[in-house]
Structures are given as structure tokens and as C-alpha cells.
Amino acid sequence: MSILINKETKILVQGLTGKTGTFHTEQALSYFDTQMVGGTHPKKGGTNWASSNGKELPIFASVAEGKAATGATASVIYVPPAGAAAAIEEAIDADIDLITCITEGIPVMDMVRVKNKLENSNSRLIGGKEEKIYVQHRLKEYGAEVWEWFERGAYFYICGDKKYMAKDVHKALIEIAIEHGGMSEADATHFIEKTMMKEQKRYLRDVY
Fold first, then answer.
1. Domains in the chain, number
2. What is the mean pLDDT of the chain?
3. Is residue 198 one of the residues assigned to a domain?
4. Quick check: is 64 in a domain?
5. Residues 6+ apart with CB under 8 A from 173
6. Is residue 70 a part of any domain in this protein?
7. Which phi and psi angles does 14 have, rounded to 5°?
8. How far is CA 148 from CA 137, 138, 177, 188, in A?
9. Structural domain for 54, as ranges
10. How far is CA 177 from CA 148, 151, 162, 183, 207, in A?
11. Chosen domain end from 108, 130, 152
């Protein structure tokens, strides 16, 4: 088993000035005496962050600037999904050895880009969970093909969770009828719920 971090490791906090970054950084400083040496924010460089117990850390405009000033070799990221991949990439570009990201729901294509950049770097990433892909996502991904199946008289059978999965799949089928069938929302809803389900009985569901 490899030891990736120890009590001497200096850590930058990307997203320190936010609520989540503040909470976790205060915990680390108060209870574990982790060497959190600074934070980053592109618009707040040159300022200081202060914890509730008076501990202050400098804020740098970039990870590269923070690394140069503090000697940090690790970073932890507390950034919302929309900006998390860019934060990871910034840390990679700054040659941070160990990058930890707790963000979940990062767009899949963003993480594909991050993976490609990681493969050509010396950085190591822990965390950074992309969005989960469900049936409805695949249906919409192949929407044109699914619509062609509709037109050819295909039968659709949905089995599974009524509260979440079935509802999301149903919505996806309506959206496919709108996008690829050229229907209005009202016509698409009628086509799926009346024509397919009740009249032709080509859309069957066993949900629970």
C-alpha cells in the first residue's frame, strides 16, 4: 500500500472561500492539524481567508501561484460540478502531485477531458465522480434510432423502479418524439401516452 500524504504534506484548497471549502478546511485545521497552506480563487488573489477560530490562510489567484509561494505538492478541490473539471485541470497544469476532488456529478465529457490530461502528466487524482448514466440517457443518446424504431412498429417494455427510472424513461421518450418526430410537446405526449400505450399497446410497463 502506498502512502500518498503525511503530516508534512502541504495542501492548497481550491474553492476555500466557499461554504464547503470553509467547513472542511476548518475541520482539518482544528482537529487534524493538516498543513493547509493556502487557497485559490481567480478573483480573490492577494486576500486572506479567516476561519471561525481566527486562523488565516492566504488566497492565491491560481494554483501555480500558490504552489510557487507555499511549496504545496497536493490540492483538495471543493468546487461545484460545473467547474470541478477545470479546477482539476488547473492543478494538473501546475504539476500538483496529488489532487483530491470530492465533487460528484461532474459532466462525463468533462471527466473524459481530465482523464486524457492526467495520462500525460505526473499528477494523481483521487475522486472526481462523473455523472451516472441511466437508461434514459442512452435512449436520448440514440434518439434518432429510437424514433426510427417507433416508426417501424417496435414494442417497448419498461420494467423497474416506478418513482424514478420509469418516470425519467417516460419523459425521455416524449422528448425523443419532440426532437426526432418533429412533434409539439402536446402531440408527443399524446403519441406516447395514448397512441403507443393505450391504443397500439406498443409501450408496456411493469413498474413497482
1. 2
2. 89
3. yes
4. yes
5. 139, 146, 156, 192, 203
6. yes
7. -90, 115
8. 17, 15, 10, 15
9. 10-130
10. 10, 11, 21, 6, 22
11. 130
Query: Is 200 found in the same domain as 97?
Result: no
Which cell numbers in the block locate residue 57?
Answer: 490562510
- Output the pTM of the full model: 0.62
How long is the chain?
Answer: 208
* pLDDT band at residue 1 under the 50/70/90 scheme: very low
Q: Which residues contact 156 (CB under 8 A, 6 or more apart)?
A: 173, 196, 202, 203, 204
Q: Tens digits of per-residue pLDDT, 66-114?
A: 999 999 999 999 999 999 999 999 999 999 999 999 888 888 888 889 9
Which CATH number characterizes residue 106's domain? 3.40.50.720
pLDDT, tens digit (0-9, with 9 covering 90-100), for 157-200: 887 777 778 889 999 999 999 999 999 999 999 999 999 999 99
> Which DSSP string corresponds to 23-51?
HHHHHIIIII--EEEEEE-TTTTT-EEE-
Helix (H, G, I), strand (E, B) or coil at 138: helix
Which grid cell is 34?
A: 493538516
Of 195, 138, 198, whose CA–CA distance to 168 is shortest? Answer: 138
Amino acid 66 reads: G
For residues 174 and 76, state if they share a domain: no
Q: Which residues of 177-206 are buried (b: 16+ CB within 10 A; e: fewer)?
A: bbebeebeeeebbebbeebbbeeeeebeee
